[in-house]
Design a protein that fits this description.
By secondary structure, the chain is an alpha+beta fold. It has one helix at 40-79, and strands at residues 4-14, 20-30. The chain starts with a strand and ends with a helix.
């Protein structure tokens, strides 16, 4: 039985001036595939990445609301 590898990311190497030199793919060895067509490791990774992104977007949305409230309060003070 042959081994199966899944590309999971790239490492972007750069020149001294900051321009991209080359992208090097990173692979992980995968095991059996679940009923969803992905490995258990991939499924866990998808859930973790989703959780991180949801936390990040929640912070961004909260910051937007905070900023809007502050702007509204400042506008009300200026109009008084």
């Amino acid at each position: 039985m042959s081994e199966t590898f899944q590309k999971v990311a790239y490492i972007g190497l750069r020149n001294d001036d900051g321009s991209y030199l080359i992208n090097v793919p990173l692979y992980i060895k995968v095991s059996e595939v679940t009923k969803n067509g992905v490995t258990k490791m991939q499924e866990d990774l998808i859930h973790r990445v989703s959780e991180i992104m949801m936390e990040r977007y929640e912070k961004q949305i909260n910051e937007k609301f905070r900023k809007k409230k502050k702007e509204k309060k400042n506008d009300e003070i200026l109009q008084s």
